[in-house]
Specification:
two-stranded parallel ribbon, 13 helices, mainly alpha, Leucine-rich Repeat Variant, 3% strand
Length: 250
């Protein structure tokens, strides 16, 4: 479900949101809890009461059903996005650590919309950089580059992630560092090496190898797009850098 700001409206005097919140308690059936959350997501109301949002946060953290938690994350993330300033709730970030993959995916999608985050975000994201799921690690690195670019500890973690066992995490770690420093040496050599290695790989045979190859090709296309963008925005600097690389290799 994609939230449409045009549909969002201020709640009337008799705010219906709290009445729906009452259905989120574990005493109600799973279907009732999902129905209430679905109403919140589709209605477009901005609840007047912070207490109403806190109840949704509690659902994110405590509901025993992963589908309910996932829907609650979406409600919380989309609803908070309609408030000014747009600050990502901490509970949405904490859902990155949820044991269920679907909950984590919703949390990644929602948190990726924000540029400001609630207090405590750094600590949660640092935990997420050590998560077993590569997607969570990648997402955490990119968000840390956004919220703590001057944090020496964060930069150190991002640099260490450039040696992650997962290909996608390594790619995102290089890009995250480039977002912080803006230095060509933090991304251009890696992207050139990555695309060269991808071309040199033998043709895939198994389905798993084909999927892996497709994933790498998509990453290479993204890398080439970034290099093309740098060529347009920083042409002289990029040309000089590439010439220096050629000299070093000769």
């Amino acid at each position: 479900m994609v939230w449409s700001p045009a549909r969002a409206q201020e709640a009337p005097r008799d705010d219906p949101f709290p009445a729906q919140v009452q259905k989120l308690t574990p005493g109600h059936a799973r279907e009732i809890r999902l129905e209430a959350l679905d109403w919140m997501l589709h209605s477009g109301y901005r609840p007047k009461s912070d207490q109403a949002l806190r109840a949704v946060e509690h659902c994110v953290k405590q509901d025993p059903d992963p589908e309910v938690r996932a829907k609650a994350v979406e409600v919380l993330g989309m609803t908070a996005y309609q408030h000014q300033p747009r600050v990502c709730p901490l509970a949405v970030l904490e859902a990155l650590l949820d044991p269920d993959a679907d909950v984590r995916n919703i949390a990644m999608g929602c948190s990726g919309m924000y540029r400001e985050f609630a207090p405590g975000a750094r600590e949660v994201l640092l935990k997420a950089t050590r998560h077993e799921a590569p997607g969570v690690r990648s997402h955490a690195l990119l968000l840390l580059a956004e919220i703590a670019p001057r944090d020496a500890g964060v930069v150190q973690i991002i640099r260490a992630a450039q040696n992650d066992k997962d290909f996608d995490v390594r790619c995102d770690a290089h890009f995250a560092l480039f977002r912080i420093t803006g230095k060509l040496e933090d991304v251009v050599p890696y992207y050139l090496r990555m695309t060269a290695e991808c071309r040199a790989e033998p043709s895939p045979r198994t389905e798993a190898e084909k999927e892996e190859r497709t994933r790498k090709v998509l990453r290479c296309l993204g890398a080439l797009n970034l290099l093309s963008d740098l060529g347009e925005k920083r042409p002289d600097e990029l040309a000089k850098f590439l010439l220096e690389m050629l000299k070093d290799q000769s």
